[in-house]
Amino acid sequence: MKKFIVAVLLLAMVGVLAFAAGSKEATGTVVLNKDKPLVFFNRQPSDPVSGAIDMASINWNDKTFYVGFDAAGGGAVQGKLITDYLATADASIDRNGDGTIGYVLCIGDVGHNDSKARTEGIRKALGTWTGSTDPGKVQVGSVVIGGKTYKVVELEGKAMTGTDGSTWNANAATDAMGGWATKFGTQIDLVVSNNDGMAMGSLQASNYPVGVPIFGYDANADAIEAIGAGRLTGTVSQNVDAQATGTLQVLRNLLDGLTGQDVYVKGITQPDAYGNKISAPMEYLAGTKALLAANSGVDKTNWQEYTSGSRDAGIKQSSAPVKKVLLTIYNAGDNFLSSSYLPALRYYAPLLGIDLTVVQGDGQNESSVLDKFTNLNNYDAYAINMVKTNSGRDYTDKLRY
């Protein structure tokens, strides 16, 4: 009898241990950092010279994705915005009447895919494209204005690098514009910039030629206001709310254990489990695991549609369990990220049950971000915006354990 009782007790203990082990598995064992969700955003891992996507970083694990916008499409939108404007302009836009439209170009970062795409879109639209996005590598183009064909010349294109080494620098654009206005005078008929920050910086030059049209890119709040005031001619919206919610939604889906197409469909093109769905159109490119927001041109005819204050009504407070995400920003001084992207992230993160910790760099040294990319075990997922687009491995190396 005693042996029977002992046997029963042993079996019961085994059952309890098995149940406990099963509970541990059901509630989740310790997840190593290398197996956690990772989203690169806004700066796609890529080679700064060839532009080739860094698939080693994108394929870091099966929970790694990129969220951004259609860079090539955005460049084309900016180019069309410019040529549409010129098509309806009058002969006075040729300020010195020489039959040539001269323009200067503010380049953000010669090694950045987005900057390359915008420069390409501008040059293709104006006919100055030779297959290179490098400064100075252009040809004479042409454009139709009021039914008449004008030659187009890129007087100078320059990468706007600050004294501290930071790229996309508005102060550098102010200095460059002042020099261009002095050097080229009435040969300047048009000013084009890879982003709004540099466009607004150009307008700060004390000798900016009055009445010369200027185009930016990003649809920042101050740029939209400048269009309304007649100071900026046009810009391109890369739909910051869609990008911000897309970044967070992909992380949310991965954190909830979704796999396959559900990762880039739920909450994006279809409602997720909490009833949320991004309103703006987004496209997924399977080959590069990239979720991209659409672009749209903004000018005096529609600028009021892009004034600040509106958010995506398709994203509401959810009952999702709170998860911690560590997010990096390459440069605390970047105009678009600091004034548009980060506020959108901070607005949507709590709605999607994401507790966001943000670290920001100086835009020059990767270490300014990497040194703050710490305490990784404390987080459930990561969102990375690199200083240099070829630095993906520097981050994944820190997530190896």
Shape: elongated
Number of domains: 2
Q: Given the helix and strand composition, which structural class is it?
A: alpha/beta
Average residue pLDDT: 91
Distance between the termini: 52 Å
Per DSSP, the total helix count is: 12
Helix percent reads 25-40%
Give a brief description.
This protein has helices spanning 2-27, 55-58, 71-87, 113-126, 170-184, 196-203, 221-228, 240-255, 262-265, 335-351, 367-370, 392-397, and strands at residues 38-41, 64-69, 100-107, 141-145, 148-159, 188-193, 214-215, 235-237, 282-285, 290-293, 296-298, 323-329, 354-360, 381-384. It is α/β, with parallel strands linked by helices and 401 residues long.
What does this structure look like?
This protein has 401 residues and is an alpha/beta fold. The chain has 2 domains: 31-69 and 239-397, no CATH class; 72-237, 3-Layer(aba) Sandwich (Rossmann fold). 35% of the residues lie in helices and 19% in strands. The chain has 12 helices and 14 strands. The strands form 3 sheets. A 7-stranded mixed β-sheet has the order 9-10-2-1-14-12-13, covered by helices on one side. It has a 5-stranded mixed β-sheet with strand order 4-5-3-6-7, sandwiched between helices. It has a two-stranded antiparallel sheet with strand order 8-11. The longest helix is centred in the N-terminal third of the chain and has 26 residues, at 2-27. The protein is elongated, with a radius of gyration of 25 Å. It starts with a helix and ends with a helix. Belongs to the bacterial solute-binding protein 2 family.
